[in-house]
Write a structure and sequence with these properties.
It is a single chain. This protein is an all-alpha fold. The chain folds into two domains: 1-78; 84-157, no CATH class. It has helices at 8-25, 30-63, 85-102, 104-119, 124-146. Helix 1 runs antiparallel to helix 2 (30-63) and helix 4 packs antiparallel against helix 5 (124-146). The termini are far apart. The model is unreliable at 57-66 (pLDDT under 50). It holds the Pfam family TctB. This is Tripartite tricarboxylate transporter TctB family protein. The chain crosses the membrane at residues 7-23, 88-118, 124-145.
């Protein structure tokens, strides 16, 4: 019986490292700490959502019997989102390009929409709602909490 999924230790380590970076950002000036706080808070939220999603997925698999009479006592690996290395690198490069050209608010919203729809294969309604929610959250963080203008990008959006 496996208690943790493969890679869980790495995820926990990454979450602890992100939490430590977030704690360290409170020692910076308010202007200098705004971007690290936004990035790290969103990173921690994403890690929590992924942990919950994979936990629910594993518990759903563990309770079901396999068609051939076996049991699903461990996680079943899925190749649904596995792709060539070039495609993964393209998504990694697309984020800083989108942020640099379109700015923080629009770039992150567009990237979130594209990633959720075409990489994660989420429905359009969920992708739009999540990306608009992210854009609204970033706007509220900068306009209300930090009282600073976010990076506008090369296009000045």
């Amino acid at each position: 019986m496996r208690l943790l999924r493969p890679g869980t230790g790495l995820s926990i380590g990454f979450a602890l490292l992100s939490a430590w970076f977030l704690w360290q950002s409170f020692g910076l000036s308010p202007v200098a700490s705004s971007v690290p706080r936004v990035v790290l808070i969103l990173t921690l939220v994403l890690l929590a959502v992924e942990a919950l999603k994979s936990g629910i997925h594993v518990s759903g698999r563990a309770d079901a019997a396999l068609p051939d009479g076996g049991d699903a006592s461990g996680p079943v690996p899925s190749n649904e989102n596995a792709g060539p290395v070039g495609r993964c690198l393209a998504w990694i490069v697309l984020l800083p390009v989108a942020l640099g050209v379109l700015g923080l608010l629009i770039g992150s919203t567009v990237y979130c929409l594209l990633f959720l729809r075409w990489r994660s294969h989420e429905p359009w309604a969920f992708s739009l709602a999540t990306s608009c929610g992210l854009g609204l959250l970033l706007y509220l963080l900068y306009a209300v909490v930090f009282r600073a203008a976010p990076y506008a990008g090369l296009l000045g959006l």
